[in-house]
Design brief:
Rossmann fold
């Protein structure tokens, strides 16, 4: 749904533009995102082109004005393409985007790139813990090496 809001803002600026939706695979979550975006854009005059990451080539994208990559595999495939169109990665983990995805998708700052993360915000997770276990005062969290920088955000949320 958040992707629709972002596309709403972008689509109002694009008059009858082509929007390419690159899906990581044919699984249900990716198909749901595609169906929602397509339903929203069907009446807008925009042309929607669905492509799977495994079949992605420059020719299959046909000069899009916006490319939406659904999932990490789609975003990685898209990053390898020599496109200049703005790119939006959805259903991707925050850690992936911050570590490698943003730099790869933006091609070192030569094209616009953004993301809508799959991760739930720490504040939302903390509220769920409080509701599920109102008497608990201590919570343990395992962080990997890549996530160790998130300890401060996690402390603040909890």
């Amino acid at each position: 749904m958040v992707a629709c809001v972002c596309l709403l803002l972008v689509s109002q600026q694009l008059a009858a533009a082509q929007v390419a939706i690159v899906l990581s695979d044919d699984s249900a979550p990716y198909q749901e995102v595609y169906q929602v975006v397509r339903a929203y854009l069907d009446d807008s005059g925009h042309e929607i082109n669905r492509v799977y990451a495994a079949n992605l080539t420059v020719a299959t994208l046909s000069e899009p004005r916006l490319v939406v990559a659904v999932g990490v595999r789609a975003a990685e495939s898209l990053a390898a393409m020599p496109l200049r169109a703005p790119q939006l990665a959805v259903l991707v983990p925050r850690a992936w985007y911050l570590k490698a995805g943003r730099a790869r998708l933006s091609d070192g700052g030569r094209r616009a790139a953004s993301a809508i993360f799959l991760d739930q915000p720490f504040e939302r997770q903390a509220r769920l813990i409080r509701q599920a276990f109102p008497g608990v005062r201590r919570v343990g969290v395992l962080l990997g090496i890549e996530q160790s920088g998130l300890a401060g955000e996690l402390d603040e949320a909890l």
